[in-house]
Amino acid sequence: MVNDNLVDNIVSEPYKYGFVTEIESEKISKGINEDIIRLISSKKNEPEYLLNFRLNAFKKWQAMEEPDWADLGYEAIDYQDIIYYSAPKQQEKITSLDEVDPKLLETFDKLGIPLTEQKRLTNVAVDAVFDSVSIATTFKEQLAEHGVIFCSISEAIKDHSDLIEKYLGSVIPASDNYFAALNSAVFSDGSFVYIPKNVTCPMDLSSYFRINSGDSGQFERTLIIAEEASSVSYLEGCTAPMFDTNTLHAAVVELVALDDASIKYSTVQNWYAGNEQGVGGIFNFVTKRGKCLGKRSKISWSQVETGSAITWKYPSCILIGEESVGEFYSVALTNNLQQADTGTKMIHIGPKTKSTIVSKGISAGKSSNSYRGLVKIGSKAKGARNYSQCDSMLIGDKAAANTFPYIQSQQPNSEVEHEASTCRISEDQLFYLQSRGIEFEEAVSMMVSGFCRDVFNQLPMEFAAEADKLLSLKLEGSVG
Amino acid sequence: MQIIEEISKNRINKSASGSILQKICLDKLQLNPLPNHKSEIWRMANKSKLARFLDYKINHDFYKPNIPYENESQKVIRLIIGDHKKINIKEQEWEIKELDDQKILNLIQHKLLESDSTQNWSALLNHLLTNEKNICGLNIKGRNLPHLEIITNSKNNLFNSRTLIINIEKNTEVEISQINLGDDNSSLSNSSYLYLEEDSQVNHGIVSYGKYKSHLINSLNVFQKKNSVYNLGSLQFKFDFGRLEININQIEGNAKTNIKGMQITQDNEQISTYAKIAFNGPNGFLDQLNKSLARDRSHSVFEGLIVVPRIAQKTDASQLSRNLLLSNYAKIDTKPQLEIIADDVKCMHGATISQLNENELFYMRSRGLTLEQASKLQLRSYYQEIISFLPISKERWDLLALLLKNK
Predict the structure, then answer these.
(1) A426 contacts in B (CB within 8 Å)?
(2) Which residues of chain A does B279 touch, with a Cβ-Cβ cutoff of 8 Å?
(3) With 70 as the cut, is the pLDDT of residue A111 above it?
């Protein structure tokens, strides 16, 4: 059998993004009520319609109950014990990166995020969000030459109010669910992307979310609009420092794809997951949804979920346009006492719509990892096609892997296929690799990476390498 | 919902003495008279159909059903639950004996006490409303037994409930077919319990065949000990509201379960199958296939759950749901689920929803068959896999002919 000590050694691999940045920040008082919402709105000088949007959402949120259907167990969240707005103190307006607090730049450097534009080689434009506000957005000018708008959502509210008014809440209405309503009421910042007609975005766009303070939640909102025949690839990364308390993260991501447009949204989520005893960690309750409005439009979600104490996340596609395509590729890894309930929803409305779901779950330690997905074929989705595959890998006999697929069809001229299997790292395979002179650790990592190959192939280059490294770092040796 | 009203107003069984079992059930049901619609196993149930299921007058009397092959042959023992016929047969190789009331109580009491009332609502309702005449308890022992045919039926405009408990002793091999016959505008509640002791084997067939506006809730609980083999073939059709709840518990693991089920819906019907298979020991085996076919405006539901706790290492379980959707207005919901903790297991599930295979149809038509003949042939092969798994002789219940005639 496998060496147990080795297992312990590697499972306890420290979280290397767990540092706290000592920076003066401006926080508002704890709790949520109408005044707090008005305060957040006034801090951001928002127009009237947005304040109404927030207040309306807050009203709806108050009338809702926290959902309990997910296979998650956690202590009740005290919503009055959270700070809903926290921002590092800095000058009102920044014209160049030189004015950004060097400590902040240092933080992002430490995280490996290139904010200084000298690092052009990476060719990725970054919007960095620190607690509640966006710090900087790089490569704005170059992008503007192509007509691409890439900025924080607060700036977009000021400069592109018409687009915000038209699309904000059009995919995920404020009343959609408990956490979406909360987000709609208190969202502080996030990214906004607009790709005009016939433009292929010249570089990958990226957001980097960093929670720094222990008692404030992060509520960001991302909106991406791809006009006719445009395309964009968007990456998202997240980290947080180590605290003993649980921090709430409730984000909303809305994507809109018009005729022939394509959006690729990739996430590497590595929030702090809590320690081995399950103390601390981020509660990650995220609503992500894309609307394929136009004909032949395409939305592709790929995600690598390795962090967070609790993950509740179902990136979905509403396939309205004829021949539109939805894709979902996911690797979810849980270790120690982490719990993840994640999956997708593919809602086929238009004819000849297609969707593919590939989900790989890896559970180690005492964690619990559930796939929950819905495939719905509406009565007008003639010729719709779905293929789903959910594989789980169990490492050790204390982890749980669950699969809950919901399949609903109302259209006879459609095909739905679903497959799921469960396996573990087989000792025969390990033995074979070791007999070939490959170290135990490396053999495990090879097999996990082979297991996830279908998903990693879908990630952009920069992310694929990072994800592979992340998984082996989190897992090596935890084989039992 | 006449029956629910009577339960909450405590009017049920006032006249009768009321057994201990009925008291337990009454207490539980008075707390939650209706199943929680938010729970997964009741979420899909059509509320108005469930209300109609509960809207008939309770009947304890026996009405002889109209069934083919009146005479018992040497090879078949026929039992109709409710008709007072005592059965105590002892032959050289085998024995069938009735269970006494205390034994029956012992067998089912623990099951009802430990579970919550939403999961077990159908059984609780059944036990509360079944009087002792309609409970059939059997103890079966031996080999080379004749085929056992157990019939439950409902009478129109009435609510009928029946309970069946069978204990299968060590080294016993038996074939049991259970026929649920639904009458026009009637409700039938049926709870069955099968206890398989070590090294026993049961080939079980359940055929539920209704008429216009028949309602049925059939809950089946199977407990398997080591090295037992349980084969179940089920077929449900022509019920306005049909519901089969299968609960298999491999108490010590090391047992085999094969399930092949099929449900056919038409008009405005809703038929559902819920299957929960729990492995409570190592080396369990499951092979389950559920087929459904939905026409017209009907709704077909399948929900399966495989539970593999840490103790159930080396479990090999697979569950497949195959569905044919034949109309634009029909609806299919399927949800095969896995809950796994043990790591050295092989668990799989799959689901497909489609219509008849066009390539096959095209091929048959190119060979000179009409579209209708070709579709019939394809449907026949679709049914055949399930029907051939039912332990019912062709002469007595020619189901395939019946099904194809209906289409």
Answers:
(1) none
(2) none
(3) no
The helix/strand count (H/E) of chain B reads as 9, 20
Contact criterion met (CB < 8 Å) for A415 and B353: yes
- Report how far residue A79's alpha carbon sits from residue A93's, in angstroms, rounded to the nearest whole number: 32
Q: Which of B299, B340, B346 to mutate to test the interface with A (most CBs of A within 10 A)?
A: B340
For the entire predicted model, the pTM comes to: 0.82
Numbered residues of chain B with Cβ closer than 8 Å to any chain A Cβ: 38, 310, 313, 323, 325-355
pLDDT exceeds cutoff 90 at B248: yes
Of A69, A403, A411, the CB nearest to B338: A403
Q: With an 8 Å Cβ cutoff, are A400 and B333 in contact?
A: no
Who among B328, B331, B341 is closest to A397 (CB)? B341
Instruction: Report the distance separating Cα A287 and Cα A250, nearest Å.
Output: 8
Sequence ranges of the domains in chain B: 2-251, 357-407
Closest CA to A116 of A232, A125, A212, A240: A125
Q: Higher confidence at residue A148 or residue A17?
A: A148
Q: pLDDT tens digits, residue range B220-245?
A: 999 999 999 999 999 898 899 999 99
Q: How far is CA B6 from CA A87, B9, B11, in A?
A: 62, 5, 5
Q: What was the pLDDT predicted at A11?
A: 43
Lowest mean pLDDT among A457-466, B84-93, B338-347: A457-466
Cα B213 from chain centroid (whole Å): 19
* pLDDT confidence tier of residue A9, bands split at 50, 70 and 90: very low
Q: How confident is the model at residue A480 (pLDDT cuts 50, 70, 90)?
A: very low
The reply to whether residue A410 touches residue B334, judged by beta carbons under 8 angstroms, is no
- Show residues of chain B in contact with A401, CB under 8 Å: 338, 340-341
Query: Burial code of B292-317, b = ≥16 C-beta within 10 A, e = fewer?
Result: bbbbeebbbbbbbbbbbbeebbbbeb
Q: With H, G, I as helix, E, B as strand and everything else as coil, classify residue B369.
A: coil
- Going by their DSSP bridges, the two strands A191-195 and A149-152 should be labelled as antiparallel
CB contact under 8 A, A402 and B342: no
Contact call for A379 and B329, based on CB within 8 A: yes
Distance, CA of B203 to CA of B174 (rounded, Å): 6
A/B interface, count of CB pairs below 8 Å: 114
Which amino acid belongs to residue A99? E
With cut-offs at 50, 70 and 90, classify the pLDDT of residue B72: low
- Yes or no, beta carbons of B355 and A413 under 8 Å apart: yes
Number of separate helices (H) and strands (E) present in chain A: 12, 24
Question: From CA A22, how far away is CA B250, in angstroms rounded?
Answer: 58
Of A402, A417, A418, Cβ closest to residue B339: A402
- Residue B356 tokens read as 């008849």
**B210 and B237 Cβ atoms separated by less than 8 Å:** yes
Exposure letters A7-42 (e unless 16+ CB within 10 A, then b): beebbeeebebeeebebebeebeeebeeebbeebbe
ipTM (interface pTM): 0.77
Residue of A nearest to B311 (CA): A397
pLDDT tops 70 at residue A104: no
Task: Sort out which chain B residues have CB atoms less than 8 A from A415's CB and list them.
Answer: 352-354
Residue B19: closest CA among B155, B131, B124, B158: B131
Q: Could you give the C-alpha distances from B57 to A265, B155, B161, in angstroms and in order?
A: 59, 11, 11
